[in-house]
Write a structure and sequence with these properties.
The complex is a heterodimer. Chain A is mainly α. Chain A is built from 13 helices and no strands. The two termini of chain A are 24 Å apart. Chain B has 9 helices and 10 strands. The chains are: A mainly alpha, B alpha/beta. Chains A and B meet through helix 1 and helix 4 of A and helix 2, strand 6 and helix 3 of B.
Chain lengths: 243, 242
């Protein structure tokens, strides 16, 4: 299993950076605590814990995309990838090696997020387990975005595109921070043509224990994940050949 | 036995012919240096031999395996220490070595044994638990070479292994390379003439992708009618311009 040592290394690269840990686990929790405090002072339906937590769990994944893209872009910049390309590891090994570490981290991130929500008053139901498990298909979407950006951009550009643009898109167009119907019009149409709001609505349905309510959102998420991953693999292999 | 046999190898990048019809052989256990000014085609040659870049024409055979048709077998018997220090910065010295050994499918026991051997050979014991990012340039270069050696390669490519090192670190690196001589076939590229002369069994000088001469350092000096190897190199390269 040549993939495992490489996947293990990528996990360490991500988890050993204290800034990564702060953004992956700390920042979503701060948002959860802050919004809950606001909700206590000025009650807003959207910021009730059962509505707020799914949005923050999905938003937290945008940092996963940023960190995996940064690892790939830095590996491309250094000669490490060039060295690894001369080993018997195949293209499939590289792609899985960058993809696999993010899945368990994403699950842990979601579990931490929902555990904090329980402390803040979220009812303990089977819906929490469904919501945590449904983080996996959403993670594939963000992993695809990370792999795509890491293959196309340098480490500085990754900071701008994934760090600023993706986190903002993921926040504004997901309906996590405000009701998209309040804005309506083209903004709402664009938001529903993208996967972020579908990811949040799928999580909300799962948390409510409404498994039939995860559709058609799951298809949107999986469709975008498939297209993004396919593009990511294409561009990763292209830059590998260019080496 | 030939460790490397290069047959009419060429590489064309758009308008640039980086390597032009190169043919040569390297014996098993030989330390063979590729010399040339910038853009001579040394790094492109190494990239083709290590299956990083496909040749436009020709072929090369490493221990009898074609770089074009049998790249998986070639990759299993080579190792490359690239020009830039290629290490994983957040991993310790030991973890970097475990990464490469793991990718080559070594068992845990074999990994530990190889790491202990290489730590002694390259004097990495004192920094074995230190993160690669915190190492000095000299130690990073040693780690880079240890990462290349851990897979027990039959052919080792060292691309400018002493670039940027101070005099002492360079001298120590020469000692390390000397200990490897004879056991494995080494292809070395360098800009330092004294390094090539001191370490190499044979030297090839390239310019604009073409091979100008390939012989022992002493014979090259004689043929160029030069007092020093550096003078011989300059004369051969300049005469090729005319």
């Amino acid at each position: 299993m040549r993939i495992l040592p490489f996947a293990k290394r990528n996990t360490k690269e991500i988890l050993r950076d204290p800034l990564n840990l702060a953004f992956m686990f700390g920042f979503p929790l701060v948002l959860l605590l802050l919004m809950s405090a606001i909700q206590r002072s000025i009650p807003v339906n959207l910021f009730e814990i059962q509505s707020l937590t799914p949005g923050i769990a999905v938003f937290g994944l945008s940092f996963m995309a940023l960190f995996s893209a940064t690892v790939i872009a830095k590996d491309r910049k250094s000669a490490l990838l060039q060295r690894l390309y001369t080993t018997p590891m195949t293209a499939k090994g590289f792609i899985l090696g960058y993809t696999l570490p993010v899945l368990p981290i994403a699950l842990v991130q979601a579990a931490v997020c929902y555990a904090t929500a329980i402390l803040l008053g979220l009812d303990v139901t089977i819906g929490i387990l469904y919501a945590i498990l449904l983080i996996l298909p959403i993670s594939l979407l963000y992993i695809g975005i990370g792999l795509l950006c890491g293959s196309l951009l340098n480490d500085k550009q990754v900071g701008g595109i994934c760090g600023a643009l993706l986190t903002n898109l993921s926040a504004w167009l997901s309906g996590a921070w405000f009701d998209l119907t309040l804005v309506g019009g083209a903004f709402q149409k664009v938001a529903y043509a993208l996967p972020f709001v579908h990811a949040v609505e799928m999580e909300k349905a799962a948390l409510a224990g409404n498994l039939s309510g995860i559709f058609p959102h799951l298809w949107w998420v999986l469709g975008y994940a498939a297209v993004t991953l396919a593009a990511a693999i294409f561009f990763f292999l292209r830059q590998m050949k260019k080496q | 036995m030939d460790a490397i046999r290069i047959e009419n190898l060429s590489k064309q990048y758009k308008d640039t012919l980086a390597v032009d019809n190169l043919s040569l052989t390297v014996q098993k256990g030989e330390l063979f240096s590729l010399l040339g000014v910038n853009g001579a085609g040394k790094t492109t040659t190494i990239k083709m031999l290590s299956c990083l870049t496909a040749p436009t024409k020709g072929d090369a055979f490493l221990m009898g395996h074609s770089i074009k048709k049998d790249s998986a077998k070639v990759k299993a018997l080579i190792a490359v220490s690239p020009q830039e220090t290629a290490v994983a910065p957040a991993l310790s010295v030991r973890e970097n070595l475990e990464l490469i050994a793991g990718i080559h499918g070594f068992s845990k026991e074999k990994q530990s044994q190889k790491i202990a051997e290489l730590a002694t050979l390259l004097e990495l014991d004192a920094v074995i638990h230190k993160k690669a990012a915190k190492l000095s340039g000299g130690y990073q270069r040693r780690l880079s070479i240890a990462m290349a050696l851990i897979s027990e390669p039959q052919i080792l490519f060292l691309d400018e292994p002493t670039l940027g090192l101070d005099v002492i670190a360079r001298s120590e690196m020469w000692d390390i390379i000397r200990t490897l001589k004879g056991n494995i076939t080494i292809i070395l590229t360098t800009h330092y003439m004294e390094e090539a002369e001191a370490l190499s069994d044979r030297v090839a000088i390239m310019k604009n992708g073409k091979l100008l001469i390939c012989d022992t350092p002493d014979t090259i000096k004689q043929k160029a009618d030069a007092q020093s190897f550096e003078e011989a190199f300059i004369r051969i390269v300049k005469e090729a311009r005319q």
